[in-house]
Amino acid sequence: TLFGTGIAGAPRGRAAEMIALINQTGARGIPVVSVDIPSGVDGNTGQVPGDAVQAVQTLTIGAPKTGLLFYPGRTRVGAVGVIDIGFPDAIVEKHSDPLYLLDDNEAALRLPARAPDIHKYEAGTLLVIAGSEQYRGAALLTAEAALRGGCGMVYLAVPECIHREMGALREAIIVPLPQTVAGTIAPSTANAVLKPYLEKADAVAMGPGLGRNDDTDAFVREFVLSAGKPVVVDADALTAFAGNSADFKKTKTPIVITPHDGEMQRLVGEQPPTSPLDRIKFARTQANKLGVTLLLKGAPTLIASPNGSVWVAGSGTNALATGGTGDVLTGLVGSALAQTVGATRREAPGPSADLQPAQVADAACVACFLHGRAGELAARSRGVRGVIAGDLLAALGPALVALESRMAR
Questions:
Q1: Contacts for 245 with CB less than 8 Å, ≥ 6 apart
Q2: How far apart are the first and last CA of the chain?
Q3: CA 15, CA 323: separation in Å to the nearest integer?
Q4: Count H helices, E strands: the chain?
Q5: pLDDT digits over 105-153, tens only?
Q6: C-alpha pair distances (Å), 31 with each of 8, 26, 53, 258
Q7: Which terminus of the chain has fewer CB atoms gathered within 10 Å of its CB, N or C?
Q8: 302 vs 87, 94, 99, 285, 361, CA distance in Å?
Q9: Backbone dihedral region of 77: left (phi > 0), alpha (psi from -120 to 50 degrees) or beta?
Q10: Residue 188 CA to chain centroid, in angstroms?
């Protein structure tokens, strides 16, 4: 390491020459490992104002530095490891924000428990409410992702006009709902139809492909606030709350929202900042203000709990920049929530299992990591330009195998 985390500006003179020599060595196949941070990367912002060391691994001291986790600095880091040199926990907590790196070790620790004698209802039951005449594939992607993510049962509720097509997913139970003239869900008798499935469900995933319609939006807002079960809200269901985001605090039910920047702006009327420190602060503030677990999609994705903790996703790829990958993420979050409720109920049998904020955040973290890792694995065989959302479903298997093997160590 030539420079530490306090570097400002581009390396010059002899330092710049040494960085060039190090990178030439790396280009010849000799591994380059950086200590604390690759020289030339800004430790706070991740900016690379000049040249910087290209490492295959960075062993950072004490705790991850923000500049290691955000682009463009992240492209210089390689694999990140944290070296514990004995900083007292009290000092670390006093002088740092509750910001954490979501790597494979942390994701494995948060996988919902799965007993050897578990049955399908203890593995989690998820109610998916998705799809419309215009956006048919979103419902299938969400439901299959939930099943591939480990959920024991999935009820897939869609407008009646597309319910026969949902039979392509043989493992889900299809629930046809009344529809509007636009082919979206109509509120007329939807709640009555959904009631028995909601009673059986451990969690709900709502939003992908619902389409925009005033009547449908009204149904979404009423359903989310009265569900009484953990809910992940995405896509058009999020937009239904645009201008009404304060309503989330009207329910004690755990809510996870999964917006990209455009959806977040519509929801709260404020554009998420792009600079790392400001973005982290924004996510933390909004999660607390709305009383939700916020999964703010981006590069990298942030997971913010209403208690102030923020996780930075350690998996992901630009291969995910294609339509439908957000639907897969919604299914995975719903799946992890349902599995967590199922595991909690098994430990303490009863009519319901109330999740704590940390458990909700853990579910969001597991889903986010699996989603990003599946994208990475799919890109290895398809190329970053060749991946489509359906490719993630096949890649979830290898991603889970790796996490489960790490969990077993």
A1: 267, 268, 290
A2: 33
A3: 44
A4: 13, 13
A5: 999 999 988 888 898 988 999 999 999 999 999 999 999 999 999 999 9
A6: 26, 6, 12, 38
A7: C
A8: 26, 22, 10, 13, 11
A9: alpha
A10: 33
- Compute the CA torsion angle 148, 151, 154, 156 (nearest 10 deg): -50
Q: What is the C-alpha to C-alpha distance for residues 150 and 129, in angstroms, rounded to an integer?
A: 18
For the chain, what percentages of helix, strand and coil (3-state, to nearest 5) are there? 45, 15, 40
Q: What percent of the chain has pLDDT over 90?
A: 68
Contact 52, 76 (CB under 8 A): yes
Distances from the Cα of 405 to the Cαs of 303, 354, 409, in angstroms? 24, 29, 7
- How do residues 186-208 score in pLDDT, each as one tens digit? 998 899 999 999 999 999 999 99
Longest dimension (CA), the chain: 74
Dihedral pair phi/psi, residue 276, rounded to 5°: -55, -50
What six digits make up the tokens of 225?
């606030």
pTM over 0.85? The answer is: yes
Pairing of strands 293-296, 302-304: antiparallel
Q: 203-206 and 173-177 as β-strands: parallel, antiparallel, unpaired?
A: unpaired
306 in Cβ contact with 337 (< 8 Å):
no
Burial class (CB in 10 A: 0-12, 13-18, 19+), 261: middle
Element holding 261 (H helix, E strand): helix 261-268
Phi first, then psi: give them for residue 88, nearest 5 degrees.
Answer: -60, 135
Residue 153 in 3-state DSSP? strand
| Backbone phi, psi, residue 90, to 5° | -60, -40
What token pair was written down for 45?
């912002």
Residues in CB range of 21: below 8 A, 6 or more apart: none
Q: Are strands 99-102 and 79-83 parallel, antiparallel or unpaired?
A: unpaired
Contact call for residues 211 and 135 (beta carbons, < 8 A): yes
Structure token pair of residue 3: 């420079």
Fill in the amino acid letter for 70. F
User: What letter would DSSP give residue 132?
Assistant: -
